[in-house]
Specification:
Strand content: 25-35%
CATH architecture of the largest domain: 3-Layer(aba) Sandwich
Mean pLDDT: 93
Distance between the termini: 30 Å
Order of helices and strands: EEEHEEHEHHHEHEHEEHH
Number of domains: 2
CATH class of the largest domain: Alpha Beta
Strand order of the largest sheet: 6-7-8-3-9-10
CATH superfamily of the largest domain: P-loop containing nucleotide triphosphate hydrolases
Number of helices: 9
Length: 239
């Protein structure tokens, strides 16, 4: 479970990027995070993963404060950033071993997970090649693999489906559902409302740094008596 309480963040004195965010993200659910570009999605995700510190408020990951107890908190998180263009001088297998070392994944479990994930995502043939030579989609799949190699309790994924081929996209969505069904937490950002409708147990809609809605899409449809997802989204942010 993730608890976010009264969280605020500013990068200059005149504008809050996040303004008093309060969310409780339970185990056993997939929560989709939806908002326009610049709404604050990536900033919140970077704070949830300890990359940025809050000005006020707190984030608690399964009982551990991300600021006060960062190591214990981060050990529980599998994080996938919004860009796959990092560590490009490493080969794929070097990258996965780096993350496995950081998360203290035992060698026998590591070997099994690498075999499992590289087979699922068709990455075996590129593991020994530098990632700078990968296509965008292959880099994206390697980032997914890196986020999941330690089988974390909490998945936090920033636009994870962009750039994936249809087969890998279907596979990742199935893995997200399986992870949630095992009483874990999955939190991901997306701007594709159809994905949120099919995949998420709840959605959080953010605009200009504030959470405007948190709940199920079915409840949102009942509230506004509309079925078109784009219309629903615009109705919420224009209130």
């Amino acid at each position: 479970m993730i608890k976010i309480e009264h969280l605020s963040k500013s990068f200059d004195k005149n504008k809050k990027v996040l303004d008093d965010i309060n969310l409780e993200l339970p185990d056993g659910e997939i929560i989709g995070f939806i908002g326009l570009n610049g709404a604050g999605k990536t900033t919140l995700i970077k704070m949830m993963t300890g990359i940025l510190k809050p000005d006020t408020g707190k984030i608690v990951i399964n009982g551990h404060d991300i600021v006060k107890d960062p190591i214990a908190s981060k050990q529980m998180i599998g994080y996938m950033a919004d860009s796959p263009d990092m560590f490009l001088r490493l080969t794929g297998i070097e990258y996965i071993h780096l993350l496995s070392d950081i998360y203290n994944v035992p060698k026998d479990i590591r070997k099994k997970r690498i075999e499992e994930l590289s087979t699922k995502f068709n990455l075996k043939d590129v593991l020994d090649k530098p990632m700078q030579g990968y296509s965008h989609g292959t880099r994206q799949k390697m980032m997914v693999m890196g986020a999941l190699v330690h089988n974390p309790k909490v998945w936090i994924l920033d636009e994870p489906l962009i750039g994936l081929d249809p087969q890998s996209s279907i596979l990742l969505k199935e893995m997200m559902r399986e992870h949630a069904n095992n009483n874990n937490t999955v939190f991901f950002s997306t701007h594709v409302l159809e994905i949120a409708e099919k995949l998420c147990d709840r959605i959080a809609i953010i605009d200009k740094g504030r959470i405007l809605y948190y709940g199920s899409l079915d409840d949102l449809k009942k509230k506004y008596k509309k079925k078109d997802l784009d219309e629903l989204f615009m109705e919420v942010i224009q209130e």
